[in-house]
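Why do we care about 3D structure at all? Because function follows from shape, and shape follows, mostly, from sequence. That is the central idea of this module. The next example makes it concrete: a single protein chain, its amino acid sequence, and then its structure expressed as tokens.
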Amino acid sequence: MAPLALPDLSIRQLEYLVAIADAPTWAVAATQVGVSPSALSQGLAELERRVGVDLFESYGRRRVLRGSAIPVLDHARQVIGLTRDLHDWSERMRTARVGRVRVGMIDVAAVVHFPAVIRSFLTDRGDVELTLSVGPSAALLRDLRDGHLDLVVCVEPSSLPVGIEMEALFSEPLTVIAPPGATIADPAGWGPWLLFPIGSHTRHLTTERLREIGAPIRVAAESHQPDVLLQMVTLGLGWAVLPVDPSVTDVTIGPELVRRQLVMAMRTGSLHDPAVDELAEQLRTA
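And the structure:
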């Protein structure tokens, strides 16, 4: 039996698909990939033809990506991310450029859990260019998926993103933190709450557990930054659920509410710099 002929897809066409999925309009997507809107449209029409499946549907004068096209989009993201890795590798081989490690961490990982690892790596590997990006887990995982980061330390998501492999680092306790002098004996009297934004895994874990114990959930403010939430607690604006910082004394520390899993994530099959593996091993043993 003759082997099945694979569709002749170009990297450029896949790049167009990712751009149109992420950009607010076709014009913005075209600008991002450096072509005219008509060239973008023609490239995507050719991608549809080669895949053999309709990827877009019309809403009035707009064309939007079909839900059924998500597997093609996931494939495009993987191919582009891995192609960036290949390009970086070839540049290192061609120019003998020093190693490069692009790390993303949630702020508590960068500031509380692993600053010693980062400092030690920088000291021991002065030949490696290390960049550190701090942000919320979802944004870091997107940048990892798209090839802009090599390694991420974040909160374990509820579902594993396509093209990403993860391993557990440790389980982190999250504790109820109240303004100075607050009474914490009865959960019915807790709040109002200063929480991570809706959509974050930590927010989901926190609110589910609060419901289980009968604590009212009235949200006064949201922030991705634990330091901002903690500062609002010290000002008496509400209660929070955060990792405990032993140096903070001007708040009321309540019970442990829930635990969240911190993980290390990398692209599956990535052709990354060997220094990435070295840093990953240091994070595992920290």
